[in-house]
């Protein structure tokens, strides 16, 4: 039984089914991938593995504390879990921890991208995918310089993240011509990809249903009950509020940002805190000005992906509990920056705004593996890279549940 039908739950279900299991997925929403996996930045970004927690973060975060449109904003609350998370975040900012975290993130990312490509070959999904790489551009020479060391580390781990000149950047993505004078340089990784994660998940669900996976949608998990060191059953309510007792041999917890809330009573503390992000999606207005290649704007920490005839722009992070309100300043900042970079490319009047809660761990390394409860497994805490890591984590947890060894070197928990 997989709890959660976001990207991580759906990929877990697919790979569990592949290994011959009888699978049921439970989710409170009527449709899959309707929460954090709904409108993300779309990047399969193996080569952009530097976590928020890095040596330059503490100073930047302090500087941004009172800035309403800051890329990473801690809104301090009387919330013990937020303060504990922040302390752990600070611990992850040392050069040694950052180096180690990048290594884990790149390894899982590389494997995950291979598993996504394999899945495409196996079942041929179509989700506005593009395989033209990711171009990361810099408007500050200092930030470009600071990016050299992590880029070198990623190259050493097998990513082909190359430093390129401004001319090369404009050659790869001609829509950057407008801001060419402002560019300090760029990095480019041809092997990275992009695509509509929500469409991917919905298509994968259709495939899974046809293959016998059961989806209990509009079912809200209310409690996980253990007895004798095992999970005995899951309590849930259905769409009409009726109580349901759900039972299985094994359970995979993939409830995204909500995961820690349901294991607390079992004496398990998952270091996951919601990091709210924003996205805007708008139809292409002028195709000659619209980007095709997936881009990352280093200065504003936002990403751009072309999804068919739509532009998706996403980013920013706000640590403010489970609040999902749309903050006007943040929405406008995304549109303003898009217009500044690609004037007239998108139809701003038809822009659709969205917020989602990234299930963030302090290190950005996800929690995948066994729990201390014999038949309860985790596939959660994927933070900024849940789409990038979905197929690799889904396949790994399916193998671990099946008593097989995972195929990638990664600090799986409890294994
Ligand atoms: C603005 C933004 C941009 C992003 N850009 C990228 C990107 O470019 N590349 C990338 O790799 N990643 C990106 N991410 C991160 C990625 O989207 C997430 O890591 C990923 O979606 C997390 O998936 P999940 O399945 O863990 O969580 P979710 O998608 O939230 O799934 C959890 C599921 O659990 C269900 N649920 C929760 N509680 C209950 C309950 N009590 N009962 C039943 N069901 C419940 C929810 O309905 C939901 O469907 C971005 C995120 C944001 C917010």
Describe it for me?
The chain is α/β, with parallel strands linked by helices. 31% of the residues lie in helices and 24% in strands. The protein has helices at residues 7-18, 57-64, 80-91, 95-123, 141-146, 148-156, 166-172, 197-210, 259-263, 328-341, 390-401, and strands at residues 2-3, 24-26, 43-44, 72-74, 134-138, 162-164, 185-189, 193-194, 214-216, 220-227, 230-237, 243-246, 251-253, 273-283, 294-297, 302-307, 310-319, 352-360, 367-370, 376-380. Strands 4, 5, 6, 7, 14, 15, 16, 17 and 18 form a nine-stranded mixed β-sheet that branches. Strands 9-2-1-13-20-19 form a six-stranded mixed β-sheet, with helices on one face. The mean pLDDT is 95. Flavin-adenine dinucleotide is lined by residues 4-9, 26-29, 33-37, 40-43, 45, 220-221, 254-256, 258, 277-279, 303, 314, 356, 358-359, 380, 382-388.
Helix content: 25-40%
Distance between the termini: 20 Å
Bound molecules: flavin-adenine dinucleotide
Compute the number of helices. Answer: 11
What does the average pLDDT come to? 95
Q: Nutshell version of this structure?
A:
The protein is of the alpha/beta class and about 425 residues long. It contains 11 helices and 20 strands.
